[in-house]
Amino acid sequence: MEQKEIISFEDFSELVKENVAVLFYFSTISCSVGESILPRLKSLFAEHFPKVLFCEIDMNRSVELSAACQVFVEPTVLIYFDGKETVRRSRNLGLFEIELATKRLYELLFTE
Fold first, then answer.
1. Is 42 in contact with 75 (CB distance < 8 Å)?
2. What is this structure's pTM?
3. In the chain, which residues have pLDDT < 70?
4. What is the extent of the structural domain holding 95?
């Protein structure tokens, strides 16, 4: 699973256009929930969805990007498939719920 950190909306838009599947993880270093769930989310995607590009966004460093994406609470997960936002979960993230929401589209796009 590839990981990338982005700050600008231009980088964000380019990644959405250039990749079939992208996960954007918005949080801050002061968010204890975000810090605790991040390793588990990375592990889930590395194991089950390795073709999804995983991007971390520090909301403190990317205020304009967060606002442009209408992300105002932390942590927030946005998942894009084929250029469209398909999953948006915030605050109390359920890994099982994120896995179920991702699985169907992932299998449709990447099953040969």
1. no
2. 0.90
3. 1-5, 33-34, 112
4. 3-110
